[in-house]
Amino acid sequence: MQNKGHYLGMAHFFRALFYFEKVKRFGNVPWINKTIPISDTAMLFAARNDRFEVMDSVLSDLNYAIENITLASDASCTRITKNVARAYKTRICLFEASFRKYHTNYGKQATAAAWFEEVVKEADAIKGFSLHEGATKDRGYRELFLAKSPYTDETILAVALSSNLQVYSSANRRFISPTYGNRPSLTRRFVNTYLNLDGTSFTSNPAYTTTPFVEEVKNRDLRLKQTIRLGEYRRTENGLSVIAPPNFNQTYTGYQPIKWCYDERFPFDDESRNDNAHIIMRWAEVLLNKAEALAELNRMTAAEWTNTIGALRKRAGITGATLTTLPTVADPYMVSFYANKFTDRYSGSAARKRCGTDFRRPPSR
User: Fold this and answer.
1) Closest by alpha carbon to 292, among 12, 284, 107?
2) How far apart are CA 292 and CA 289, in angstroms?
3) pTM
4) Which helix (H) or strand (E) holds 65?
5) Residue 342 banded pLDDT, cuts 50, 70, 90
6) Domain range summary for the chain, segments of one domain joined by +
7) Which residue of 30, 35, 43, 221 pairs with 194 in a disulfide if CB–CB is 3.0 to 4.6 A?
8) pLDDT of 135-181, one tens digit each?
9) Could you tell me which residues come within 8 angstroms of residue 280 by beta carbon, excluding any fewer than 6 positions away?
């Protein structure tokens, strides 16, 4: 039985998430840390607090949650544990550290390092997780997003669905139906950021801009074929395996996602019947958060690179020196990809400049 402190820790955790989302959207917001009587008009109509003060309170809430939540693990990956709070802290602190460092007009650059340090500290405190491999490297990554019960090796938090309870999502319909969804598609500019299997940049080939689809997807990071339809992709219809290349009735660009979709057409494409779990937080993101924080702190070492970016690339089937050797020259394509999105002279944060394709966030990668 959980004690009172555990539930207070849960309350602080959810308040931290609530305020983090509000600060992201609105900046300064009123900070409320007590129950408000309906007669307390001063509090009800209080002015907004400074966003930096609010984020300091968010950090305090996260620390309280980590200290007081007693649940250490959860086989269902659906409950809030200490590791869930720690993982969210790495995400939130990385956001705030980057905001303070690169929004120089606020004059908070000197406070950024402490937030980056919090990312590294909490990432190191999370134990018991690894990158899901699966039976083969060309299936393991996608398996994460199709599992009905989350894989506990990598998944830190997920939303579980259930056909027995009639709790479904519309993943197949959203991504495949030409009328129900909005035909979500990846862009070629984004697909260009996937590395070659030997660890080299796809865009290092001068002919990359004119390489046809059937050629450009060969010998690439194995996550690519587990994210979009390739020419040999197959689905099941009426019990039969059929070839299903990109369908331009369902995609605008031809880079058609399959990452969250079952390969069976019926009933999933036509009805909202997906019961695969939705991953909210996983170990891969924690590794990325830590790597970016270390790079921003100028503390990335070969060993840390191997255990973070190198590990992610190795799981994706990539080979070569990139698994253990830090790059020393920024990829020109990645520099242009992030041009004018950041304020440092490399047009991209230090970690994105160094690590390239592994720093693609949404959806959870």
Assistant:
1) 284
2) 5
3) 0.91
4) helix 51-68
5) low
6) 4-125
7) 221
8) 888 899 999 999 999 999 999 999 999 999 999 999 999 999 988 98
9) 156, 157, 158, 159, 364
